[in-house]
Amino acid sequence: MTAPPGTLARHTAHVMGTVFSFRLVAPASMSRRDISAALADAVNELRAVDVAFSPYREGSLVCRVRREELSQPSYPAVLAEIVDACARMRALTDGWFDAWAVPGGFDPSGVVKGWAIERAGARLDRAGITSYAINGGGDITVRGHAPHGGPWRIGIRDPDRADTVVMTLDLTDVAIATSGGYERGGHIVDPHTGSPVTRAGSATVIGPDLALADGYATALFAAGSPGLAWFPPHTGYDALIIDEGLAATFTAGLDNYRQKARAA
Amino acid sequence: MRRKLLATVGMVAGAVAVLASNTAVRAGLAIGSGGHTVRTSAAGHQLARRPAGGRTGGSTTSLPPGAVTEEGPVVDTRFGPVQVRVSFANGRITESQAVQTPNDRRRSVMINQYATPILRQETLSAQSANIDLVSGATVTSEAYTQSLQAAIDKAPR
Question: What are the CA-CA distances from residue B39 to residues B8, B18, B63, B118, B119 (Å)?
Answer without folding.
Answer: 8, 21, 10, 15, 17
